[in-house]
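Contributing new records

If you add data, match the layout below exactly. Sequence lines come first and carry their own label; structure lines follow with theirs. Keep one chain per record. Anything else will be rejected by the validation script.
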Amino acid sequence: MAYVKSSLFPHSPSPCLRWKARSQAILSILKNLGADFLCLQEVDEYDSFYKGNMESHGYSSIYVQRNGQKRDGCGIFYKQDSAELVLEEKIEYNDLVNSIQDGQLLVDDKHDGVHTNGNKGAEPKNDSALKKAPEDRGDPNDPCVRLKRDCVGIMAAFKLKDPPHHVVIVANTHLYWDPEWADVKLAQAKYLLSRLAQFKTLVSNRLECSPSVIVAGDFNSIPGDKVYQYLISGNSSLAQVVECLEDLPIPLCSAYAFTKGEPPFTNCTPDFTDTLDYIFFSPTDDIKPVSFLELPEPDSPDVVGGLPNNSHPSDHLPIGVGFEITRE
């Protein structure tokens, strides 16, 4: 949601890009969704806008801001009447730098296979405004430079009020954008699942429960690419990933793909239109997706010409899933 400037979205009507109008449109959409949990990425103005306004609509929240000079971050908003926050942890993918041994590369051949399948130009908008020229990003052969992308995530355990006492872990993240650095995205995805597995063990032991797991976010990866395949299978064809990522991941399944298939797109601009956002869950007998937020078709009048526009205040469409908890 951050980085919405006319220079990045010349196709968008100028009035819809102004924060005063856009912020109210965002707030209206979030309120009308009526979800128990909302996972938002690229959130700036958290303290000055989102926190208080969402509280007035019955939502408490937790938030993590990106590292470095970045102003945005990831937030989880949850209905106070539906869930109680029990435990939370922040994920800073820059921590990957600390796990790299001197001289160890992230992949065997950084130029071989690092492109995601057909994902050229993925999300050319927001982060591209902050993108530095290759020579300004430091030595790409240095894995410490390569992994320091200032990306973050957040995960938390909640005790539901219906069914009573059932615990659900909700994670929210935003992975690195550059399609030519798919190895970095993959390392982040592996780190995410490693941290999530550790967090689930902590929650299970501390609360003596078997929590359900839901993971949402902007993964900057299209269906079928290496990051997506890893997230839903725990496997990857990219080799020689850093040792700290060798923990067995939590098995995940895409909620949309589970029944109806991924939407045709979640990000829509004249330069790039495809699916980058997902809601994953760990499939067990306790939880299953039962309803979905319908998304417009590519030829729908409210998306033709690209986003943001007067109908959609972001260049990403909201996705949503209704889950049924089958065990108390």
